[in-house]
Design goal:
single chain; mainly alpha; 2 strands
Length: 173
């Protein structure tokens, strides 16, 4: 019986073969794919232009509000207390409206950025899955989670070319 257990144990150890130890793990740089693809670059340029124009617009409005405030302070001595309070309330309402519009613009910008990212990822995932099936790859990891790896297992450029063929641009408006 003792020999049977030893033979069974030896058979079990030598017959166990795990293929995950021998499979190569590939990686891609997701940040590079999202930022350097044609659609990603185009979306970034569009969003940057929009952000800059919105910033200029809101900067001009802020300067106008500051100018109105300083003029109101200068005129305080010449105004009645009641007129001054009305002018202050009007200025506060303008300031409140300015902050609301600025917050809405900021939220809209963030939503468009997230929409562009989601569109890129939605297109990218099937491309990666198809490539994995074609090349019989078991696992692809994001580059930011890797300490060290050979450049031979980097699939970023291959996936980037496929992404550029698949998605020319993102419609942001």
């Amino acid at each position: 019986m003792r020999y049977f257990k030893i033979i069974f144990f030896i058979f079990l150890v030598f017959s166990y073969h795990n293929t995950s130890f021998s499979a190569e793990v590939y990686f891609i740089d997701m940040t590079k794919l999202l930022n350097e693809s044609k659609a990603g670059k185009e979306a970034q340029q569009f969003l940057k232009k929009k952000f800059n124009s919105e910033s200029k617009k809101f900067g001009a409005q802020l300067e106008k509000l500051k100018k109105e405030e300083s003029e109101l302070i200068k005129k305080k001595k010449d105004m009645s207390q009641e007129d001054y309070k009305k002018a202050i309330n009007t200025l506060r309402e303008k300031n409140k409206s300015y902050r609301q519009k600025r917050q809405e613009a900021s939220n809209n910008f963030v939503n468009q950025k997230n929409q562009a990212r989601a569109t890129l990822l939605k297109t990218l995932n099937p491309i990666i899955e198809k490539y994995m099936q074609e090349k019989d790859i078991k696992m692809i990891v994001d580059k930011k989670n890797i300490v060290m790896a050979s450049s031979n297992v980097d699939l970023t450029q291959i996936i980037l070319k496929n992404l550029d063929k698949e998605l020319k641009s993102i419609n942001l408006k």
